[in-house]
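Justification of computing resources. Each target in the renewal requires a structure prediction run like the one illustrated here; the chain below, 698 residues long, is used simply to show the kind of job we budget for.
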Amino acid sequence: MTDAIGYERIGDIAVLKAQNPPVNALGFDIRTGLLAGVERAEQEGAKAVLIYGEGRTYFAGADIKEFGKPPVGPFLPDLCNRIEASPLIIVSALHGTALGGGLEVALASHYRIATPSAKMGLPEVHLGILPGAGGTQRLPRVAGTQKALEMITSGRQVGAKEALEAGIIDKIAEGEPRDIGLAYAQELLEQGASRRAVGEMPAPEAIDFDTLYGSTLKKGRGQLSPATCVRAVQAAAESDSLEAGLKRERELFMELMNSDQRLGLIHAFFSERAVSKLPELKGIAPRELASIGVIGGGTMGAGIATAALLSGLPVVMLEMTEEAAEAAKGRIIGNLQGALKRGKISEAQFTTLTEEILTLSTDYAALSDVDLVIEAVFEEMSVKKVVFGKLDAVCKKGAILASNTSYLDVNEIAACTSRPEDVIGLHFFSPAHVMKLLEVVVADKTALDVVATGFALGQRLKKISVRAGVCDGFIGNRILATYRKAADHMILDGASPYQIDKALTEFGFAMGPFAVADLAGLDIGWAMRKRKRAEGMDPRERDSSYVDKMCEAGNFGQKTGKGYYVYEAGKRGGTPNPEVSDLIAAERAEKGITPRAFTDEEIVTRYMAAMVNEAAKVVGEGIARRPLDVDMTLLFGYGFPRYRGGPLKWADIEGLDKVLATIKTAAQEDDYFWEPAPLLEKLVAEGRSFDDLNKENS
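Resulting structure tokens:
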């Protein structure tokens, strides 16, 4: 026995208690202890074995400390098979969570009982793999093919009630897991119940697995693990024995283990947990946040207010007129009604949020006692300076003044106050109550406890918070501007917006860049281009004007019904706007450009090379502290496919030398836009990767 598993005898029942806090992860000690415990119970003449977890949970899954290390036996598949093969009656008592390998151990047991609050699932698809210890073979035998496929391909957790209805567990009981497990095991012995191995149950029903495989691959935008799970469940239905199905499951598991997608998803998993852990904030306490103010009740401001209200923070919403304030409240109510409809809040909570902790005002004095104010007004420096001047005058000492600017210089905004140390950028992404990314933009004089408060707010709002330095567009929008320019250049040179969108959605992006532009509003990019031109552009920079003509005609994308695509009421998505091709052709003729054909592969290669090159500049300049900060920004704010890990993880997998070669080849045509990032050149010269930098700065 090991210390990770406790052993005791209660009459004819051997009790195995997992004691590996906090989540009883199925590491080496737990696996060894479970195997030894079952063997000891058999040797000592017990008639039943109870397996349960001490503390807050049953086995919550694999031990993440073992990720990336050579596996050491006993291996989980062998352990599960050994548990199932025991001649004793094996009972698992579930509470907390039984996830991944935890549920597989439970399924290898002969009977399962759970507390009402227990949850269970097989989330391996989110790590780019499949349940590899019999989960794809045993779950369909108890829950049926359709239910098992839905759970396994989505990674969704189910509650005890749903699990009971599906046949995954046998009973629900109130009480401590040890108590309910012992009572159930004793009841089974008294009834003379026989050993009941899931693997010996009839094979699950066969369905049209080929069609489901194709639709699952399409739904996952190319992610392999959910579709591969379909093939594993197919093996459960079509194999002539459990052993044959388990063999096929193992083959498919190893295929995924050796895939680039698993590398990307594991990187995303760990980076998501590391991104908000900054060495500079160690030991720095955030300022108290009891209430916040939001200035501007448009789509963005209303979304920020909604997110704050849902976290329980009282909000003062400031608008310029009573009518605008009421319109802002209407937007917030609409957002909260969505949460109510989805069961996220109750009717009573809805009333509290809208009538008790939301305050509307048209007077800056209403912000005098809030702890933090987020400005979400028009993206114009002169407007923001006026707002911050007023905030400086009315806000209490120690209040944090935050700007939701997407591009503008937070240092310049801070300089117009008497307290630049209290000023920070909090760049939310729209809709702010839905999108998970928050860029915490740290200006030159921002105090460390203000930075800590920005991250504390992000955590409270359930955001993925990323530290960004000050530059035009910070991390995300600066990189976006560059890869979007690469797409614009390809259009001038012969590609179409629709081919580019198609190639990139097939690569795995949620949307192509031109569909995204329509969604965001073409007027946003138009305003930025006009600002850049007014500031003075380098004569070497390629500029295009066809989209300006679309904007001049009042076509701003989805909100006007026409942009790159034409949108019809009641129809999902849009169809290509035929006017766009004429505008592009006219500009090519005006510039004397002879269009050439682009392959989809060339489009993706150029687009990604531009993204990686600019991201390397962002890291090299310290705007992002680590490559993983860039990766998380693009994953959570810009629709980058999670299974590729982020642009810099993608570059590592692709090969930095290969990416640099693409950039240098393109630089022969345009050495201004395609100037290689010094950091990228340095890493290639030293034979190192972006992940090496993550490890150095972890």
